[in-house]
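Colleagues,

For the teaching module next term, I've prepared a clean inverse folding example: a structure given as tokens, and then the sequence designed for it. I'd like students to try predicting residues themselves before seeing the answer, so please don't circulate the second half yet.
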């Protein structure tokens, strides 16, 4: 085991002892779980307070992708694992291109399943990672509960140096040295049920923020219609059933008609949907979608205006 050369005192609520859970080890199993759950219920309100800043981050990320650039997640430990999980879900859910969201995790891919705790102290490593892969026009979102993780802050400073916009999701109102970051998404979750265990409330907050962030970006880019996942591809039996259900719910047509339309569109749910809702031929529906940058509602409005 590597022994750190120096100790750093982190002045963050997440490191403090929680006065509400000091008897945690004396509780019955059910009361122990109730105590943890009571702390967890504080997280959504903390996230709600950060939504204005998160909205700015969403708009910056959507603009980056809309103009041919990328979104980068940067994290260490729990934060990096949360980011990796979020990015991995976007291709199957929204058919997002694999290079839209890029994850930079301190310690590399091996740190996803085995802790590489000292990697988070490598500020130069974070900066070098970003310098190799980020360009002007990209958006870089860092995640660190403490607001001080050297790997993450080094990466964000390097992003700014190349002209990329940046944001930080953190849970420490006392964090300093963040003035050069474009968007600060502060989610003050307070002390953890177990002091310093930021995989708990702070990690839950990061999960909520990332899910809301990436979902909102996908909605802004037309990857949904109403509240439906119309950009997914039916690559297995379950997804084939889901696409047909979406077509039936949105058009009111029977299973046979929807199945025929989906086959005619070569499995492209958006094309099948625009075809069925507008009545135009499949090829015309595909063209309208391309001209609308993939936005189903916009394509339908354009088609109806030309009728």
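(Answer key — instructors only)
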């Amino acid at each position: 085991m590597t022994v750190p050369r120096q100790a750093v005192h982190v002045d963050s609520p997440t490191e403090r002892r929680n006065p509400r859970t000091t008897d945690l080890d004396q509780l019955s199993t059910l009361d122990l779980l109730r105590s943890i759950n009571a702390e967890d219920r504080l997280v959504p309100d903390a996230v709600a307070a950060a939504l204005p800043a998160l909205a700015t981050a969403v708009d910056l990320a959507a603009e980056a992708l809309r103009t041919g650039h990328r979104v980068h997640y940067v994290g260490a430990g729990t934060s990096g694992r949360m980011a990796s999980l979020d990015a991995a879900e976007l291709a199957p859910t929204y058919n997002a291109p694999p290079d839209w969201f890029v994850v930079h995790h301190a310690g590399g891919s091996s740190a996803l399943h085995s802790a590489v705790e000292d990697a988070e102290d490598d500020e130069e490593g974070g900066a070098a990672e970003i310098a190799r892969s980020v360009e002007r026009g990209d958006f870089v979102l860092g995640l660190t509960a403490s607001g001080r993780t050297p790997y993450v802050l080094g990466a964000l400073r390097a992003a700014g140096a190349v002209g990329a916009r940046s944001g930080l999701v953190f849970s420490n109102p006392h964090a300093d040295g963040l003035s050069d970051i474009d968007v600060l998404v502060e989610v003050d979750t307070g002390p953890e049920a177990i002091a310093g265990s930021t995989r708990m409330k702070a990690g839950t907050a990061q999960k909520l923020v990332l899910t809301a962030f990436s979902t909102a970006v996908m909605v802004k880019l037309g990857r949904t219609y109403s509240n439906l996942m119309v950009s997914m591809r039916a690559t297995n039996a379950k997804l084939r059933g889901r696409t047909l259900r979406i077509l039936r719910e949105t058009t009111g047509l029977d299973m046979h008609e929807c199945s025929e339309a989906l086959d005619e569109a070569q499995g492209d749910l958006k094309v099948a949907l625009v075809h069925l809702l507008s009545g135009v031929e499949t090829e015309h529906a595909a063209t309208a979608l391309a001209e609308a940058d993939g936005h189903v509602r916009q394509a339908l409005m354009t088609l109806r205006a030309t009728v």
